[in-house]
Amino acid sequence: MNCNIGVIRGDGIGPEIITEALKVLDTIAGRYDHNFNYDEILMGGCSIDATGVPLTDGAIAQAKAADAVLMGSIGGDAKTSTWYKLPADKRPEAGLLGLRKALNLFANLRPAYLFPQLKAACPLREDIIGDGFDMLIMRELTGGLYFGKRETTEVDGKRLAYDTLTYNEDEIRRIAIKSFEIAMMRNKKVTSVDKANVLDSSRLWRAVVEEVATDFPQVTLEHMLVDNAAMQLVKDPKQFDVILTENMFGDILSDEASMVTGSIGMLSSASFNESKFGLYEPSGGSAPDIAGKGIANPIATILSAGMMLRYSFGLELEADVIEKAINNVLDRGFRTIDIMPMPGEDTSNITQVGTVDMGDLICRAIDTF
Ligand code: NAD
């Protein structure tokens, strides 16, 4: 198969983790006779340095021309980086928001799966973890508070700022449909998270999700208020299958879910529009605190590349092989620093490795299947 993949290395650890993901894709291409062509796209802080803006029209055109885009992460340390002295719409994150909007990527999928080998890294009690959990957070990406009208002004001599949270029924319906479709392939349960006791936008959200649910009678729908969802994620994460929620709630809950899995370095993510195109990226950020040290965990980015093979290119077997290879490497005790056992745990079969070694180990494991 010939696939044109846009590659955004980005900032911080982005280039390091992308290098490992491309190595894995090349291994898969060699083994299963595919042609993966990479088109490097500048976005984020590195684009500001090179062009003065976080996202150029040319970069958008490159992304649109690709079959899928694989991305590292963008952004820097907000306290020290000069990028954050720029107005908000010129900062690295504006590039990502602009790209999502330009590609109409309205649905973000973030699996929160507890790898059995990393059970000990999960901060929850053994009785809460049980046999582990496997949920998917479906976050609306192009509407809500992050895209609403906002202003910082002065009223009666006092500084005042506001942001607005707006959704129309079409925006809610299309993400609800995606969530129910995915739930049909899984455990057939959707938990729609909102704040319907306070917000009008949430009351519309709830009403539209209920309308969509009538087309999916096999799927169980439940509604949960966002404050309760934040508690339930640490009290009983096993109860969730697909969590459907709006942009800001999803931003916060998906980070919480990432922490209960043990490491943000293990979580992949995909964003979709209505076609097969997807933007695939790790859930974590650019981790400026560890950038350049060669210790970042590349597994989330490698899993994102696997999701790209599965959802954009239909290469199920190849995606399975990547996941099997990761499990094999973890079974053999190899860990990056972020997923090392906690102090006091048994480390006799554990070997700490850096970013490049982890990538190499996964490639070698692929070659053994
Ligand atoms: P972060 O996810 O970058 O880092 C949070 C913590 O997780 C840090 O201690 C970091 O070292 C660790 N971490 C993250 N990924 C890791 C990995 N692969 N391996 C090992 N450890 C890892 O979040 P932050 O510090 O809040 O944000 C840093 C920058 O990233 C900011 O500029 C932010 O805007 C940006 N950001 C970008 C994206 C994106 O590109 N999609 C997403 C979130 C944050």
Task: Give your account of this protein's structure.
The chain is α/β, with parallel strands linked by helices. It is built from 12 helices and 14 strands. It has helices spanning 14-32, 45-51, 57-65, 92-102, 126-129, 169-185, 200-213, 226-235, 247-261, 299-311, 316-331, 355-368, and strands at residues 2-10, 35-40, 68-73, 107-113, 134-140, 150-155, 158-163, 189-194, 220-225, 242-245, 268-272, 278-282, 334-335, 351-352. The protein has a 10-stranded mixed beta sheet, sandwiched between helices. It has a two-stranded antiparallel ribbon with strand order 6-7. A hairpin with a 2-residue loop joins strand 6 (150-155) and strand 7 (158-163). The radius of gyration is 21 Å and the shape is globular. The mean pLDDT is 94. Bound molecules: nicotinamide-adenine-dinucleotide. Nicotinamide-adenine-dinucleotide is lined by residues 13, 17, 73-76, 93, 96, 264-265, 281, 284-290, 296-297, 300, 338.
Q: Can you tell me the residue ranges where pLDDT is under 50 for at least 5 consecutive residues?
A: none
Structural class, please? alpha/beta
* Average pLDDT rating: 94
Distance between the termini: 20 Å
Bin the helical content.
40-55%
Rounded to an integer in angstroms, the radius of gyration calculated over CA atoms is 21 Å
Beta-strand portion reads 15-25%
Q: Give the overall shape.
A: globular
Q: Give the number of helices.
A: 12
Key features?
globular, 12 helices, 10-stranded mixed β-sheet, binds nicotinamide-adenine-dinucleotide
